């Protein structure tokens, strides 16, 4: 599958989220690039509700069902990747880079690419994707939350504070996740996190 081919935004029928499972289905053995193309197609055309992250194997159909949140995803925990998972993730990243080069406004593909960069530890590249998404979706609270996570991962705590405040302004309310998301661990050690918590308390939402 050629990532530089003309972009078609309806690759496959929408896949509804079925939830995480220990027995998630896997695609049959075939060419790795073909499998990656199919899984990306599933992920960018999927529907449902989920957090950014999830199972670490990029060739896992269960992950494809779980990763998409109607176009909106929030960062999730990053598990340690095996060598095979790193290889497969790199193939998926290469594919998505080709797709987004052809269509820089393809939000669903950018969401998956940003998640993949973060899981691969390529935080600066993930930040650039999240900044691009914030320009494309300025009113989306989860896009701003993800941007805050990327700023935290790159040590830009003032920018993380601003992005998380924008997420709250746009309606983000999953404060329990904000208080434990590993991607925000560095920011939670910064004094600005206490300022953010004070704002959250003023909204009468409990956060630890």
Task: Write a short abstract of this structure.
The chain is mainly α and 208 residues long. The protein is 55% helix and 0% strand. It has 2 domains: 1-121, no CATH class; 137-208, no CATH class.
Give the topology, please.
Layout: H1 32-45, H2 61-67, H3 83-102, H4 107-119, H5 123-136, H6 141-153, H7 157-169, H8 175-178, H9 185-188, H10 191-202
How would you characterize this protein structure?
The protein has helices at residues 32-45, 61-67, 83-102, 107-119, 123-136, 141-153, 157-169, 175-178, 185-188, 191-202. Mean pLDDT is 74; it is low at 6-39, 45-51 and 53-72. The radius of gyration is 17 Å and the shape is globular. The chain has two domains: 1-121, no CATH class; 137-208, no CATH class. It is 55% helix and 0% strand. With 208 residues, it is an all-alpha fold.
The quaternary organization reads as single chain
Proportion of strand residues: under 5%
Quick one: overall form? globular
How large is the radius of gyration?
17 Å
Number of helices: 10
Quick check: average pLDDT? 74
User: Low-confidence parts lasting 5 or more residues at pLDDT below 50?
Assistant: 6-39, 45-51, 53-72
Query: How many domains, in number, for the residues?
Result: 2
Can you give the helix content as a percent range? Answer: 40-55%
- Biggest pleated-sheet summary: none
- Structural class category: mainly alpha
